[in-house]
Predict the structure of ArsR family transcriptional regulator.
Amino acid sequence: MMECLQSLADFQFNESEEKELAAYAKAIGHPARVRLLRILAGRVCLGSDLVGQLGLAQSTVSEHLRILREAGLVNAEVKHPKTCFSLRPEAIKRVQQLLADIGGV
């Protein structure tokens, strides 16, 4: 059994990392966005292909992709008239690192 802390006086908080992780969590906080990340893992996909995979309206998928892009989790490369999406592995590693820090790993 884990011991309960007697005092938080010596506990080190890192507000910038807490805000960073919270922003990632907010971006990932929808099942469709989690699915998009899984689909994009290790591959590049056209936006139209992602719409077909998710079974959602194009505008809905675009909004989810916008949120993931703004959070820095996904890249979008415009090749007019199409857009290719890919995962940003360094961002995923950062999320993993921030979560590991919570677990004390």
About this structure: The radius of gyration is 17 Å.
